[in-house]
């Protein structure tokens, strides 16, 4: 524990305990501001504003976010190594995020190792339950995900191999364009 901190400490001419304290303080500060700046829309007014953004930019009604995962490289962990070794050949966290049409991040889950599939991360989230509850209460809102996610009434995915010129192909073209917000947010 703290072995990578020794290297950092040497690099910045500090001792390992000081580096550890700095990491703890920065992490605490990030957690405090994340609650202020990263908020999934809870009110009808917040949802309406986001829906208007997706509709104005992409002509896609009812969307309150684009969702995807990205791999964030980490140092090889001491335990549970296989949970963090991803299909791309390195150790990572598989971080799930949701953003609005302006690329503002509205939800983050960084609790899973790189070996976890996007659909597994989605299935274990409070966000899924929240989206289900919105649908059950009559709210017509959904997220846009890629084909790594399951199609649900509240989670729209592209139609793979849609017939050329069909409504399915048109839907997929608009879907992919709107969902690209999350790819740009990652970038």
UniProtKB/TrEMBL annotation:
The question of whether Protein biosynthesis is a record keyword is answered with: no
Q: What is this protein called?
A: Putative nuclease HARBI1
Function comment:
Transposase-derived protein that may have nuclease activity. Does not have transposase activity.
Q: Which Pfam families match?
A: DDE_Tnp_4
GO cellular component annotations of the record: cytoplasm; nucleus
Organism, scientific name: Papilio machaon (Old World swallowtail butterfly)
Q: Which molecular function term from Gene Ontology is one that the record holds?
A: metal ion binding
Sorted alphabetically, which keywords does the UniProt record give?
Cytoplasm, Hydrolase, Metal-binding, Nuclease, Nucleus
Record-stated family: Belongs to the HARBI1 family.
| Residue span, DDE Tnp4 domain | 67-187
């Amino acid at each position: 524990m703290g072995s990578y901190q020794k290297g950092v400490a040497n690099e910045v001419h500090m001792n390992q305990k000081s580096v550890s304290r700095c990491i703890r303080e920065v992490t605490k500060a990030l957690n405090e501001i994340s609650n202020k700046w990263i908020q999934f829309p809870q009110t009808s007014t917040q949802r309406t504003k986001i829906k208007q953004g997706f509709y104005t930019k992409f002509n896609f009604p009812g969307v309150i976010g684009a969702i995807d995962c990205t791999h964030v490289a980490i140092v090889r962990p001491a335990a549970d190594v296989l949970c963090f070794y991803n299909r791309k050949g390195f150790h990572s966290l598989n971080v799930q995020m949701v953003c609005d049409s302006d690329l503002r991040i509205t939800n983050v889950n960084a609790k899973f190792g790189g070996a976890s599939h996007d659909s597994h991360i989605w299935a274990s989230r409070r966000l899924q339950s929240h989206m289900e509850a919105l649908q059950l209460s009559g709210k017509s809102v959904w997220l846009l995900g890629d084909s790594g996610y399951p199609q649900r009434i509240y989670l729209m995915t592209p139609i793979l191999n849609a017939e050329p010129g069909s409504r399915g192909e048109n839907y997929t073209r608009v879907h992919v364009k709107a969902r690209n917000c999350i790819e740009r947010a990652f970038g």
